[in-house]
Write a structure and sequence with these properties.
The chain is mostly helical and 113 residues long. Helix content is 62%, strand content 0%.
């Protein structure tokens, strides 16, 4: 089934059911911009078809952003600041844990001396 068979015009996508919206974005990710009731599954399929459609995702998740960037690295320009901040915070926490673990190991080795 091609995109034209799913809907007559892009504007029709906004009012179709989720199953038809999913089929539409699989054919043309840019149809997402007209989908009123976006689900994570619909958004994920849209960005897998074309990563740049991340621009039209209303509620971005890390999974959706990762799929978009895997499809097209230029999609990074559309990642919401909140997603980036959350990722950086987790990286910082992981780095802090790693450095604390290293420091504690060094302390333990010094105490053995």
């Amino acid at each position: 089934m091609n995109f034209d068979e799913v809907v007559q015009t892009y504007e029709d996508v906004e009012w179709i059911n989720p199953k038809k919206a999913l089929a539409a974005v699989k054919q043309n990710g840019y149809a997402l911009q007209y989908v009123k009731d976006q689900t994570e599954a619909i958004c994920l399929e849209a960005v897998k078809q074309n990563g740049l459609t991340l621009k039209y995702v209303k509620d971005q998740t890390e999974e959706i952003c990762l799929a978009a960037v895997k499809q097209n690295k230029d999609a990074t320009i559309y990642i919401n600041k909140e997603i980036i901040d959350s990722y950086i915070k987790r990286l910082s926490q992981a780095e802090l844990l790693t450095s604390n673990s290293k420091y504690l190991r060094e302390l333990g080795e010094k105490e053995k001396l």
